[in-house]
Predict the structure.
Amino acid sequence: MTEIKSVPLAHVHESLGAKMIPFAGFNMPVRYTSDIEEHMAVRESVGIFDVSHMGEFYLKGPKALDLIQKVTANDASLLYNGKAQYSYLPNETGGVVDDLLVYRIDDDEYMLVVNASNIDKDWAHISKYNTEGVKMVNWSEDLCLFAVQGPLATKTLQKLTHIPLDNVEYYTFTKGTFAGVENVILSATGYTGAGGFELYVPKETAEEVWAKVMEAGEEFGIQPIGLGARDTLRLEMGYCLYGNDVTDETSPLEAGLSWVTKFSKDFINSEALQQEKEAGVENKLVGILLKDKGIPRSHYKVCDAEGNEIGEITSGSMSPCLKKGIALGYVKKEFSKKGTEIFIQVRNKMLAAEVVRPPFVKAGV
């Protein structure tokens, strides 16, 4: 059995009454109160997530960009200091090793933020292609990561720093003193579509920073948020979850990642992916909105009007904002057009649904 790790602040979450569950190899808070209450706190005010299970790799050297260009599909040469980029690691067989964020910290200095369940796999994969002596450091156990999200996140965090946070544009980041701690990375990224920042803080100062953020957000009703609400928040925006919507076996082009697949450069398996693009994909990942009452779940079958199987749900839930069932799933290309009527098989029932283009909920970033 694989040992379940704990995030450094596990004791804090337990003291706040969190229900802890194993997730991606870590003991994580899934909820503190209720998923719906926590979800709406982020949509309407501010919430704080402890996502310190995520992995961070530091790459440095004159060949750091070359390595990143080789192992990621997006064009990292477009980055400038203080800019972040969404990308993915293609594998050699047409699938996806992981999706990730690439941060350009300085000239020849980068940070890669990877999914918790893939830390060891990603490290081995990138290391395999590091033939030019790029310095690689695994920061994953040295940093804690807090996502402070919601329309009142910036007001909450501004109390704790002199950095003008309103000037930090979406998908950029800055580094400075925050809550009295030096060298904190404040990144205007997120996984909720509700706006806010992700804070990368040294592990030894994490509990102090968490407490100060909670205190700063008290007047706005800040709540700690668990993995349950994190999942429904990202699903309302149509954001993929690795292991569900994207895997080692799924085509990134079928998964809708063409926008971060840049054939202006050579990268792992780029030739085969280029051929796949030219030939056309067979399936597409789409947004699905239920018309009938019900909750679409992962692995439920998607059918046409005659009951023929045409695809499968990869992520699904009840949307707390819409109060309707929403999902992501793969369907045959001919059924992927917006407005197409489809059906979700739930036990022995066929629930009517339609293909929509995410996000399901219009939220601010």
